[in-house]
Structures
1.
Amino acid sequence: MIKIVFFAALREQLDCAELTMDIAEILTVNDIKQRLGDKSEQWQQTFSNTSLLSAVNHDMVAGDHKVKSGDEVAFFPPVTGG
Amino acid sequence: MIKIVFFAALREQLDCAELTMDIAEILTVNDIKQRLGDKSEQWQQTFSNTSLLSAVNHDMVAGDHKVKSGDEVAFFPPVTGG
Amino acid sequence: MAKRSELAEISIQEKDFCLADEVALLEADNPCDGAIVTFTGRVRNNNDGNSVNSLTLEHYSGMTEKSLANIISQARERWDIGRVKIIHRIGELTIGEQIVFVGVTSKHRHDAFAANEFIMDYLKVKAPFWKKERITDAGQTVERWLEAKTTDTDKADLWS
Amino acid sequence: MAKRSELAEISIQEKDFCLADEVALLEADNPCDGAIVTFTGRVRNNNDGNSVNSLTLEHYSGMTEKSLANIISQARERWDIGRVKIIHRIGELTIGEQIVFVGVTSKHRHDAFAANEFIMDYLKVKAPFWKKERITDAGQTVERWLEAKTTDTDKADLWS
């Protein structure tokens, strides 16, 4: 099982801050995005946004990063702090 | 007449903070240096130091800058503020 | 170089900070670092021509601290710096309030300037903070998430 | 941009300054400048391996103010900056004491960083200040005029 968290505009669009996903095999971040997009038309559209960033266990990662059970995966828009 | 001022290590080497010089014609800063060097062996040596900086009326100038009566001329070592 | 363990280098907090106190901590018992550079960012009263009333800062707790610690490590690898402090506020902020503080000490002023700007440039594109502005647009008060600027990405890229 | 006339931009003084007060002045009634960068230089406890006890700062009154005003003008031509303050102390200073302060506000952080460093780099090679150090060398206390560093000239040249 992995924990998936969403932030900022993405969290509001999905109306979801956090969910869990059972994964039997090792998946990439892109695979997870795909699965999330399968949930609905709206999620599909939301995750087709190529500017979304991804982090695994608090490190920014690229789409081909491999995720294993127990990891925390995050998706969020480009950051705007400072 | 011009006023000539010296600062920092230069002032201490010359044991002089300020002097006046009568000038009939227009001289360059280098001409003035030359005249000052004529005062003594020690002044000669002091003004042969090529790292000395010059200012006329509070603006840093090069050796060919022309000085006229009423100007304030300054000589000093490279600055070390900040 | 000053002992680092004495200072918590990163603070994410709702409450305001006091510049003088932060500088005093950076300077205390630190007689070898002659240069200190600070950056303070505040909420501006306008953005893209719209009047800003206030903003809300959200962050990703845990990742924020990790990413800022990583940025500080990279700065230490590149420049000879002494102490570093990063404060970033979260929650509701109004016009003129302080958002972010970066302080860097060094023996050499250029290292303090460069490391400070590097930290800000990387913070802008790597640290997981998001701003939602409450703006007045054509007489209406609306909330909108700030769009990331490509100029920020470009600035960060200049360091690599 | 904030009105400039409200602030005396340059102060040459014997007395110490308070960073918090200076920053408060730079920020007061200045809601459009979101970025403020400060540089503070202090007397270090050593230089070229010699232990420094104190130093005396001499300057060329009149030329100092003119050269600093000129440096600020050049910074304003190059960058979009709001308020500027330069404070430079003169007279006797001991270890850890503040020597110089430069504060710059801007809408854009890069302009504030660049203008501040530019001002410091030019001040180092253009403003008529001279430091005489009282150092301990092989057990003896001696006074010596600080030598100018060629690295400072090189840094200033990088801007041109």
2.
Amino acid sequence: MATKLLIEAIHDTLIDEMRKDERVILMGEDVGARGGVFRVSADMIEEFGDMRVIDTPLAESAIIGAAIGASLNGLLPIAEIQFFDFIHSAMNQILNEAAKIRYRSNGDFHCPIVIRTPYGGGVHGALYHSQSIEAIFTREPGLKVVAPIFPADAAGLLRSAIHDGDPVLFLEHKKGYRAIRDEVPENGHVVPIGKARVVKSGSDATIISYGMMLHESLAAARALEEKGGGSIEVIDLRSLRPLDTETILESVMKTGKVLIVHEANRFGGVGAEVSALISEEAFAWLDAPVMRIGGAEVPAMPYTKPLEAAYLPNQQTIGAALEKLAAF
Amino acid sequence: MATKLLIEAIHDTLIDEMRKDERVILMGEDVGARGGVFRVSADMIEEFGDMRVIDTPLAESAIIGAAIGASLNGLLPIAEIQFFDFIHSAMNQILNEAAKIRYRSNGDFHCPIVIRTPYGGGVHGALYHSQSIEAIFTREPGLKVVAPIFPADAAGLLRSAIHDGDPVLFLEHKKGYRAIRDEVPENGHVVPIGKARVVKSGSDATIISYGMMLHESLAAARALEEKGGGSIEVIDLRSLRPLDTETILESVMKTGKVLIVHEANRFGGVGAEVSALISEEAFAWLDAPVMRIGGAEVPAMPYTKPLEAAYLPNQQTIGAALEKLAAF
Amino acid sequence: MTSSTARPAGVAERPDQRGPLSNEQLRQMYETMALARGLDERMWLLNRAGQAAFVISCQGHEAAQVGAGFALQPGKDFLLPYYRDLAISLHFGLTARDVMLSLLGKQGDPTSNGRQMPAHYSSRKLKIVTGSSPVATQLPHAAGVALAAKIRGEDTVAFTCTGEGSTNQGDFHEALNFASVRQLPVVFFVENNGWAISVPMAKQMNIAHVSERAAGYGIPGVTVDGSDPIAVYTAVAEAVERARRGDGPTLVEALVARFTAHSSDDDDRMYRPLNQAQELRANDPNLRFRARLIEEGVMSEEQVKEIEARIKVQVNDATEFAENAPYPDPSELTLHVYGS
Amino acid sequence: MTSSTARPAGVAERPDQRGPLSNEQLRQMYETMALARGLDERMWLLNRAGQAAFVISCQGHEAAQVGAGFALQPGKDFLLPYYRDLAISLHFGLTARDVMLSLLGKQGDPTSNGRQMPAHYSSRKLKIVTGSSPVATQLPHAAGVALAAKIRGEDTVAFTCTGEGSTNQGDFHEALNFASVRQLPVVFFVENNGWAISVPMAKQMNIAHVSERAAGYGIPGVTVDGSDPIAVYTAVAEAVERARRGDGPTLVEALVARFTAHSSDDDDRMYRPLNQAQELRANDPNLRFRARLIEEGVMSEEQVKEIEARIKVQVNDATEFAENAPYPDPSELTLHVYGS
Ligand SMILES: Cc1ncc(C[n+]2csc(CCOP(=O)(O)OP(=O)(O)O)c2C)c(N)n1
Ligand SMILES: Cc1ncc(C[n+]2csc(CCOP(=O)(O)OP(=O)(O)O)c2C)c(N)n1
Ligand SMILES: [Mg+2]
Ligand SMILES: [Mg+2]
């Protein structure tokens, strides 16, 4: 098993799938000679040519709209949105078109596209290069949303996404690209969409998270255990829609205490749905209120260091919440 | 006190505020001679002229973008989006611009616009003339969202929205326009943004709702009481952001049982946030799981009668849930 | 010819010619125009009778649509229509029964099985691509359909239609630019009836012809008289050839008339004088084309009677068939959200 | 003149004239261009030294920006800039200290108090309107600013800038169309440096000049040599007069060069030959304008020395001032989400 950075796992899987299946194309701003602004598609235009690795004009709605059209005519397009923060002008194409094509045509048409985009903050990207607005998309039936933060999951979920018959929003944490390195199984590793993973098992409380906050949560859980504060189970959702209800509820029924952590602001975030789901399905098993930690309840992440740091949850704030939870 | 239809209350308040304040303008598709496709702005271009009642080209992003610009130069624009289902191409202007202008400029600029739009289904509008996608907007700090369903609230909240210093999304239920008639106080009635209303008080359980489902909920509550099934409190949120936490929690602490009902699908809906809020803040007072009822978990509301009917919650489905709740 | 301004307004490039069309084809053209009109008029009757909740019309657009349709190859080329495209959808193979099933939202409606509003014509088998109600979103789709064809080296053409008011949408701009940069085999067809619901052309854009917009993308732009199916055929045939040759997209604007209110939910007396609507009908392309074919000896009075008779049968049959068809079962509500 | 195609590429309308500018104004022009360059170069040094996380440059655009700025009335007209508009923002009254405070994200940065990335120039007092990072969103804002002025009967002009790649966005199309239909007093200024990060003009659009897009909106489109501040002044002055007269918007394209990589996060050697970047610098508008003013006797070697000296002092002072300024307190995080 090779050890790879998150970005390498994505890059290598893209190349592997494009070699295996001619129908797969990549389109987006600067994905060609530049290899993408983060170099996720480095050297791909050289191998696959500019008919399959397409530098598009600066127009997000056309990128998604054209990808949709290409998918309706037999291709498996991967559309890159340069930053999640710039996806808004494509929302009509994503939410009103891609997500509704199968349903509105009664299954006559379907739309197998993947939308890859870097999200998340902590890199001095400020209000418009740091956003975590996944909840806008997870609420949309017809769309699938994944946010792998381990290289193996990124490789396995990207493969599933490319061959899924429905549109999949594939979220890549830009801070994780070069911060997270881990083992990746060789040849064709696949991770099914809709399955969470228990990253660390425990018995006293459950942390449910995803993205970079998963790693902060792990650190907080371990720190608490070291000082004998209890045994914490940590779940990486990986897929945000569909949610892995089974894995979530199993853990809740075991520990009876839940802390949900994500980088997005709390109000209306993925954590709200997970919390509501838990009260509906596992109320009788709860020994404490389901708690949520999220980014600051402000329009977006500020640029300057002290404000950016104050915006983000971290091991300390998570640890403090865990202790509150343990005290119940 | 005059009795008015929901649509009349909105129409009359628009005229009243435009007479009182020269800075108020109305812009949108067909708002002029046509008076809007629902006739909300009937006869307004005749009174205020086409400099203040503006028939715009068919371009939602420009409607909102120009309204933003006009607000930055001293006007109080009211932008109409003909159907909520067509707001997507303006999401960049709403979420990345209007909602972030005050914050990103550290309070140097602010964006006092109102975005009026008809939402909701049950009128054979199908997938693209029936949507309830308010949760996309309620999750956005910097934006306010209101959804009055009583004529008096519509008048009072529209007045507050026009004079609010921040962008306000003003949701008008298109089925309610001519279905809901009620008393409206004269001269300058104001309802503050962020305050819910206890429409019917009760002691055994609380229904939290808004929009047309509020009326279905009221009917279900009354029906249950008549057959001695318990006393149900019914809250009309009216404002979806900010939420009236105080009124919500007070009621929960009184009744200990909560049913949340809205027309939007459940996953990631406003009800998810309300449910999560209640478990965090009133867990100890809960005698039963917080339950949610929403539209079907499908991409949007179908056209044909039987499927449209099957999509929507109604007095019967709400009543059944109430009985389940009462049984706890 | 790269812009309508090269020509007086609304005049087709070769209005005198009818291109390489056989008399048989010309009669088919007329029959499809007439069938579309017959179905459309029946839909309004059903609406007024309370049987159909919503109708939106092709009346006044038939000649433009059918003329364009004959320049394409149904079965091979893709059609990405909008809600007025009943006539060209029929030309692509949609049947009268299909149309009535979707009007009444009945089981078996091939466009959506009753899920979409009427007039959202769609069929994978017929290469009519499913569309939504938000306008202009099909234009980028058409570019994408053409992109796939070009990547595979096929000479398929994507033909997409919209109204003139919808060319003010960002998606129009982004789609034409994308298609031109990649030189994709797509034809953008604008049915300019001068109104966007109640908003007249002058309040929609500050140009005389939509085709003037082609210059901004470096593609040819043409304006043709949409009441002359042969002129439209000629202009679209040229655009289609260009696309098949690999010389990229064309913007074709057909000047048409909207005979009815915007839809059954609209009342156009609020914003356009009644006599205007009447004047438009006075110049009905269907009647003019029929007279012309008779006059030119392409079609006999006999044949006209046969055509009218066939259409009457089809429209009645389709209506009855749809009226007797069941509604979809409520259990269908949750089908086809995801494939797996 | 309604399209650049009326003129050979990149040649200004009246390149020989300098318009009604006094020698004093011409020297001010140069000083602002030079100050912008001085600040920009210092920002890169601070970035390389690890003090500034992000820099995006105006280098190569200064002449176009300052030439345009002199055709406007700061204090009366509105500026809706984009991230390269350091030079014109200085002309509108932003100070060297303001710029350095925002570069380092320090307390007192008037553009956002450290909340936005550097180069998001903004100040209500100076009528520089706050902008975001998503491109082209400021174009509809400019139309709206102009709409408010027109409704109140003021002769204020809204001047907004963007890059050529950003003209592919739907908002460009919708804004120009809206502004033209309402005949609003706005000038759309495109700084065409031939690159959208790594994407060359040819992959962005299939036309020779962005100004050709004006035809689609029925407004004048001009292309000027953006390395000649006087040519830009002349073209923009005409557009501003047109706007003040009530004759509507103009699209002005200035041909400029991007001397640096797209930003400090970019490495342009991946997509453009090193020698191209060097060739561009060989034709530095700042140096050419300085030589020209000296040659024409507008500015003496003495005065050049004084200007360079003043700039050195300003840049050093601003750097020191910003370095010594405190960061915003973390408690500021939650301020200004809502007004009430
Ligand atoms: C994005 C969007 N906004 C608004 C509407 C509502 N609407 C439906 S048709 C129409 C007018 C379209 O005019 P035009 O493009 O000229 O087509 P026509 O109906 O005249 O054929 C409008 C505003 C819509 N369908 N989509
Ligand atoms: C909507 C959107 N998509 C993508 C980006 C990322 N991005 C920033 S600048 C840029 C290129 C802009 O090129 P151009 O408009 O020519 O301006 P220039 O930088 O060349 O002056 C891109 C793609 C963005 N800021 N906004
Ligand atoms: Mg029209
Ligand atoms: Mg550029």
